[in-house]
Amino acid sequence: MKNIEKALTELRRSLIVSKLFNITIDALVVFLIFFLVFILMSISWFYTFIPTVIYLAFFTRKKLKSIKYLEVEKKVPLLQEKLRTAADNVDKDNEIVNQLHNEVIREMKLIRMSMFLDPFKNTMKIGFIGVLAFAIVLSASLNVMLFDFDVLIKDIGGRFGGDVFVSDLNITFEGGNENIYGEESIIDYGSEELNLGLNTMQGELDFERKKEAENLNFHGRYITQEDLKAISDSSYIEKKLAKDEEEIVKRYFNQITR
Amino acid sequence: MKTIEEVHAVVSKLLKEAGRVIVGQEEALKQFVIALLTDSHAIIEGYPGLAKTLSIKTLASLMDLKFSRIQGTPDLMPSDITGTYILEDKNGKREFRFQNGPVFANVVLFDEVNRAVPRTQSAILEAMQERQVTVGNNTFKLDQPFFVLATQNPIEQEGVMPLPEAQSDRFLFKIKIIYPSFAEEVEIINRFTETEYNPELRPIIKKEHIFEMQQLVRKVPIANDIKKYAVDIVTATRNKKELIEYGASPRASIGLVLAGKAHALLSGRKYVSKEDINAVALPVLRHRIILSFEAERNNLSEDEIIKKLLR
Which of A85, A183, B132, B262 is buried most deeply by CB count within 10 Å? Predict the structure, then answer.
């Protein structure tokens, strides 16, 4: 392999690395934007990978295909047209071509990797990533939700499926002692929705931070059998709640079903 | 002569030496050299009295080349150019001997080519293309290098027979000789009116150097992008129907790249740049396109239209 070939391969490799770095930063921005949007729409964050992977696949192919020596020549004017000529005539061997190859190899030392990493753009992107990360943490800790995407989908589905009345549905109990939810006999299904909010950032229930249940109107809502179910937290089943805490839960459910 | 630096130095010296005789016309002189280095021919167009003949004669002397001049007239016969058999009395025996015509030279100046009849014009075609002449059943090889420069007078159009497109396409360049600037004209007066100005010219380049340079020109590398740029310009002449009725042929693309290589070499560059292609585009294309009625109506010249195609 001639020296010029080695030098051009090395240059191409550096260009690929710089492109991949830029694409990775961009993909991270895309990931975080979708992450934030999905949290606000109450969509599982796992779905964020779909647009990110699509972005990565599309732009990696596009950017890697667009790697041209012209880009290097724009950054190093001394190599203007020379680099492309040397690359296009790499297989030729005569005195002028060899002189050109030697000259290009000498001038290629002026190429710096930093030339292809725009410091201003990258600083902006990293700053934006910081802002997005902060917004994600804040919205998750404050439990901010613009609208519930699942409910929206079900509402749309319900419109086509006809009205379902809450009193026609039976509550199901999964994974635990149903006594904890209070007396089934006193449960009175009404026309009001019970909305229990759980902090998604905390793994365990904090009984100290209980508040009055809000009454929401069921009017215009379409609910399914799946909506009416009670699932015991694994910590309750595995750890066994203390007697007095169990009482608190019972009392809580008794009160809210009164 | 193996390196670009050597060629650049020699040609610079040649042009400087020519400048001792010719005032101005640097661009035209450079184009003569390019045509010679690409082993091609050129048409020269210029008003009378602009030192067309003197320029060619000077370059031929500086390159140690045999120079001959043919004056185009309506009664000029092909045999006046190529030569003919003459009957010779030798030792009491009469035999035919071929008498070389003026075409048997290295630099042939065909003055006012458009005054010669087409039959005579085409007689020089074989010489230009094949580097040989055929008289009767015999073919004679011409001495190398062989360089034809045909001049045309742009003002006297009466009684002239313009070169057919097929014939003018065989010339690499159409070189326009322009009027000298005011200062140059004053210098011309100074040189040629005070004493008999006849500087002694010593050859700077030998024939073998010309062959070496011709080979070197073809070795100058060119990037694919620049090749495509040259072809883009030529194909654009075919697609710009509103201004150009007939565009240039692929021979123009070859000429553009080859002349670009020679221009790069003369500029001391080891590669062909877009600048080189742009520099030679006008002389390569101006005689290869035929303007549309629309362009003529708008008083546009070939050069103006070609400039529009350049980036």
Answer: B262
